[in-house]
Amino acid sequence: MKAKRITQSLLFRIFVAIVLGIICSFFAPEWAGRLFATLNGLFGNFLSFFVPVLIFALITPAIANLGQGAGKWLGITTAIAYGSTVVSGLLAYGTAQALYPTLLSNMNVDTVQDIEEGQLTSFFTVEMPPPFEVMTALLLAFCVGLAMTAVPSDSLLRASNQLRDVVMKVIETFIIPLLPIYIFGVFLTMGMNGNLTHTISMFLVVLIVAVVGTLILLILQFALAGAIAKVNPITAFKNMLPAYATALGTSSSAATIPVTYESAKKNGVSESVAGFVIPLCATIHLAGSMMKITLFAFAVMYISGETVSVGLAIGFLFMLGVTMIAAPGVPGGAIMAAVGLLTSMLGFSPEQVALMIAAYIAIDSFGTAANVTGDGAIALVVNRFAKGNLHFTEEPAVDTAATAVGSTQDSERMRHSE
Q1: Which of 31, 46, 126, 305 stands 20 to 30 A from 409 (CA)?
Q2: How many CA atoms lie within 13 A of 18 on its CB side?
């Protein structure tokens, strides 16, 4: 049963797609390469069309539902989670700026061909213009979501929730199943174009940096949480190791909620605080995911010879933090939300987006483990501020917690909730 579960996981299928793409690139005929270049073009164009719709459909009800939560403590917990996520991105960006000129010095624009170009061309293309731009989708979602918190409308909220369910169904039944084929085609065409060796080398180097980076992030989180909550950070981190190990195996923050909850209580967090913070942070705290996306995004840009200003990079991190927090509990939600910002703000091509998806999924478990373990640090801080007892002036964030727990079923099916 366990072996069957592994073979059905998205991570396993992506791994097989990468390996098969590399192997087939050595002997595949040109027509096969052009065929997959055509399929990749169609799928990439569909993603460009669908991502703005996805962002609007996920963010609007998320903001509206959060606005109906537990008031003060919801705001405090969300602010801490957002701050942790953004700080993670800033640390990753600083690491990239400091290390990539040395680590990736042999994979710069002089030695790596532009992954957008190559000898293979598609048989045909079909233009799929999006209904609106990504930034338009973000602004519209924020405005509508915030408006629904100020002017409650059950019918509008119900409609937005139903639209979210429809979009999640498209992701689950169409986009996620086709990702392995898309990744296979990308590695096949890259191998036939002569870009493969340098790309694989970049993947391995940045993967190591990302794993080490998530561990350093956890050390910083628990050092700060320990100082605020006046507990031993080493002991607190050890108590969260069961949650870390569970997340490594499930790749799902939602599926790890019961273990994270019990681990947080071992650190002295009260039941009321743990019961509120852990389900909420399972959906909105994505510091590990932020680090992965940032490190790989700027690695792809570096080897492609592209640069962005510091201001644009920081703006990208702040926007990505908001987008990921507002798009909880969706299989592949973080990277799918990031696709819109990668293309609109950093100018990523479909091929670069495919590389990002493959890189993200390759170390999905480590990012998820960092997310849920960091939830324990946030619980310590909130427990200190609340003195172990949350007094709600409104109804507790039942909707938010229920969303987190309910998404476990989707997460279990896909094994990929971040």
Answers
A1: 46
A2: 18
